[in-house]
Amino acid sequence: MTNKELLKLLDDRGIQFVLIGGTAMQIYNSPRVTHDIDIAIRTLDVDAIIRLMYENNYYLITEVGNSSCSCALSADEADAWVEETRAGAVSFIELETKLLSKKIPHEKIDISTQVDFVFELGIPFTRLMGNARLIELKDTSFYVASPEDLLLLKEQRRDKTEADLLDIQFLKRLIKRKNS
Q: Mind giving me the DSSP string for 100-130?
């Protein structure tokens, strides 16, 4: 499933969401390269997201090792994992065939199918949604976080990568241009 198809599916199901992360950065013309998609959702939609993803051949990643990752085999198992770990985000990968074993070698995973749903952010979802920009395409629409909120999310990260630092510089320049 393409990212556009995924966003349309979420919209069609009435799930409120805001695009964040590298894909949001690209919408603002950042040179950033990203392979996954990061989506902010409301905590109350986590169960619906898990069910929807499993209906569409996505599996929740529960652990990443050196040569493989582990996945929850069912939506019920994924729900239990989220409850047990008190995770503030969930990562899914799309697989073409039904998963029979929890372990998947890294070489069998297409990283471009990874979808991260974040439901515990340093910004309340209502604020994120209220500040977000509506992007309207021919057959769907979605919200992307404002540059100011993306900057705040980046600055709040404790474990900033080199890409995060470059994103922060880009966002500060973008906001400065917008305000001048």
A: -SSEEEGGG--GGG-EEEE---SS-HHHHHH
